Amino acid sequence: MKIGWRHAVIALILVGSFVAMFARAPFAQDQAYHDFADKRALFGIPNFGDVASNIAFLIAGLAGLAVCLSRERNAWRTRSAWIIAFAGIALVSVGSGYYHLAPDDATLFWDRAAMTVGFMGVLVAVLGEYVSERFNAMLWPAVIVGLASVLYWRVFDDLRFYYWIQLGPMVALPFTLLFFRPVYSNRWLLLAGLGWYGVAKLTELGDKVVFAATQNIISGHTLKHLFAGLGCYFMYLALKK
Fold first, then answer.
1. How far apart are alpha carbons 103 and 94 in whole angstroms?
2. Any idea what the Cα angle at residue 31 is, between residues 61 and 144, rounded to 5°?
3. Bridge partner residues of 45 (DSSP)
4. What is the rounded distance in angstroms from the CA atom of residue 199 to the CA atom of residue 16?
5. How far apart are CA 168 and CA 182, in angstroms?
6. Rounded distance between C-alpha atoms, residue 152 and residue 6, angstroms
7. What CA–CA distance (Å, rounded) separates 40 from 49?
8. Given this model, what pLDDT does residue 197 score?
9. What residues does 42 pair with on adjacent strands?
């Protein structure tokens, strides 16, 4: 693999964001995070909107797994990474649903653990397709690092490592998709998936604002699940095509 300026930019984003994150002081989980706007129960399920909306991750995750498992192993060089990515996405529906039944740090651990599996799977899959298939060897180390970030948070009550796991890949992936020539003709679908994830983060930040603006019909966090699930579904479409 010939190393050029494009590789240097991706490395700088990942390493630079890590250094920048750990250059700041440690910060703990804000307990106000667990105070979501929509606390309504339905069918005996507390916080029904935030719980039920996780079905979007289950649909996208299972659809992606079905495509991955239907392909020949030797015909698709990033198959294993995508399997882990979509398995993580499917598990988010379980972890996040469990968390929203009774939001606190203990249940949030399982939500974030599943998310890191998905993040790391997508990162390795895209690097393996666009940069070099040698990145496939990083799959399990990357998953372990992702899970370690959640354990680090729970042991030390410090979110810097976990936030980097979210920030680094999400910034590096668009540059990877734009800088490198795709192996498969699915770049716009992957970019659209990342775009919907960005929209999901915005609605998450505006949880209570969205809830008030819609006259208590739907909250920003519920929309976050739906938009993020839609982003994952776009990744499934990319694989299907």
1. 14
2. 40
3. 42
4. 25
5. 21
6. 31
7. 8
8. 93
9. 45
pLDDT, tens digit (0-9, with 9 covering 90-100), for 69-84? 886 655 677 889 999 9
How many other C-beta atoms can be found within 10 angstroms of the C-beta atom of residue 182? 14
Q: What tokens were used for 110?
A: 């399982």
> What is the spatial distance between Cα 29 and Cα 13, in angstroms, rounded to a whole number?
25
C-alpha distance from residue 24 to each of 27, 151, 159 (Å)? 9, 20, 11
Q: Is 201 exposed, middle or buried (0-12, 13-18, 19+ CB in 10 A)?
A: middle
196 touches 233 (CB < 8 A): no
Confidence (pTM): 0.92
Cα separation of 131 and 74, whole Å? 19
Percent of the chain with pLDDT over 70: 95
Q: What is the DSSP string of 95-137?
A: HHHHHHHS-SHHHHHHHHHHHHHHHHHHHHHHHHHHT-GGGGG
Three-state SS at 42: strand
| Structural tokens at position 115 | 């998310």
Both tokens assigned to 220 = 């920003």
Any idea which residue has 């976990």 for tokens?
162
Residues 6+ apart with CB under 8 A from 38: 47, 49, 50, 211, 216, 218, 219, 221, 222
